[in-house]
Amino acid sequence: MRVLRWTGAFLVLGSFFVGDGRAQEVAEPPRTVRVSGENSVTVAPDQATVRFGIVSRAETAEEARRQNAEAAKSAMNAVRALDVPDEKMRMESLRLQPRREYNPETREHEEKGYEATRQAVVELSDLEQLPRLVTTVVQQGASRVDGISYGLSDRSSVRDEALRKAARRARDKAELLATTLEAELGPVEQIQEQSFGVDQPSPRVEMRAKAASSDAAPAPDAYAAGEIEVNATVQVTFVLR
151, 179, 214 — which closes off a domain? Predict the structure, then answer.
């Protein structure tokens, strides 16, 4: 019985040393090359967002608010007349505040009634309607055009194409480096998307209510959308053989 106990102890101890020896075996990390790929896709926009400013001034706050509400209703009706769905238009919160003007003689700011301001936002999917939309809405209640921005209805597909082109560019760079240094490009070890950006055109279309006649309206060229550039950058690590 004593011999068996010592034998068992020897076997366990031997197994411990064998396992410890294997733990000390450290595999060498694979040789790798890390590259970045950048590329872009340029497309024409297919939608626009127009922001109209509606400003009303009056002696009293209530009168300024009432006039603004009427102008906003008229502007929205003008948008509906162009067959724009209700879900593509919205009216933002009303801002009502005292109106002050500087008097150079007294060198003081004087009360000049009240001013009510809000914005109407319209999303347009038919860009050919844009000049007509701007002119009609300013004529029918809006005080000015605060801005026009262009966009894409399907940005994800354009983004995916930019990423594919960036990834191919990264592989081309890695193959060039590996071939130049007499190595062979192996499988991908790691992929990381580093950046994604959209450069959008933003035309300056300045129009106010007093200049909204057909003779004064901006020419269609003033609304030229230009092109949208979608950029993507990826970082890829390849194993070298």
Answer: 151
**HSE of 109, CA atoms in CB hemisphere, 13 A:** 5
Whether 123 and 104 share a structural domain:
yes
132-186: pLDDT as tens digits: 999 999 999 999 999 999 999 999 999 999 999 999 999 999 999 999 999 999 9
Q: Are residues 51 and 146 in the same domain?
A: yes
- The C-alpha angle with vertex 211 and arms to 208 and 215, in degrees rounded to 5, equals 145
- Let me know whether 118 and 168 are in one domain: no
Domain that holds residue 175: 28-46+153-200+224-241
Position of tokens 């967002």? 49
User: What pTM was computed for the model?
Assistant: 0.72
Alpha-carbon span 189 to 238, nearest angstrom:
5
CA–chain centroid gap for 239, Å, is 35
- Residues contacting residue 238 through CB under 8 Å, at least 6 positions apart: 32, 33, 34, 35, 171, 174, 178, 185, 186, 187, 188, 189
pLDDT on residue 180: 95
The total of structural domains in the chain comes to 2
Q: Give 123's Cβ-side CA count (13 Å radius).
A: 11
User: Which domain CATH number covers 41?
Assistant: 3.30.110.170
For β-strands 47-58 and 108-124, DSSP reports them as antiparallel
